[in-house]
């Protein structure tokens, strides 16, 4: 079947952005070589009102806020969610090298503030995802029924990339078949491995965070248009990419039908983080 360009469909509605970093700062690492206009957005900063206005202007109904990696911003994110409970869910970056402190943090995030996603990043830990340090956090996420997001692919910050090779996730899935895993940040140059992991393991999904939609790997779009329609979800990694730019490019993606497009921009993230 030949794909049809999205403008032939009704515009997508109720977009859910699965990764928003409202307080992204210098601790995220220097990625200016990838996003040359980012410095201006960081200099300006983002208030909650500005974030809501930008989401509304682009047609983003809901978003998953991220705290933990970019400073002490948990309180900001919780307040934003409590102010707009119909608009936001919460995620937090956990460092598994903290041992039982990381496990207790996960339990507190979920029990106290209803966090819906735990994130871990090889670029931060410099550990492959099948290293022992991660396993207590994986086990706690299974116990709590909370998905975990793992950054895969060459990271933007100029640190070694081998720790974000997605292949070790295969070991994790075999050991924790009930763990819901979201592969984030693209997976390049190992995109085919990401697809193979989704084909093999029913609890693995993929979000297109930090990838401008026009640059989404063809293998991912092919998978989203076929057996992976329920596995691939939109994410911007705002403010690295703006909602305006991302949604402007989404309408030009080649989806076979409006249902698959809607699952990508809203339905899959809605089901995982808001249901």
UniProtKB/TrEMBL annotation:
<feature type="domain" description="Amidohydrolase-related">
    <location>
        <begin position="42"/>
        <end position="273"/>
    </location>
</feature>
<dbReference type="InterPro" id="IPR032466">
    <property type="entry name" value="Metal_Hydrolase"/>
</dbReference>
<dbReference type="InterPro" id="IPR032465">
    <property type="entry name" value="ACMSD"/>
</dbReference>
<keyword id="KW-0456">Lyase</keyword>
<protein>
    <recommendedName>
        <fullName>Amidohydrolase-related domain-containing protein</fullName>
    </recommendedName>
</protein>
<dbReference type="InterPro" id="IPR006680">
    <property type="entry name" value="Amidohydro-rel"/>
</dbReference>
<dbReference type="Pfam" id="PF04909">
    <property type="entry name" value="Amidohydro_2"/>
</dbReference>
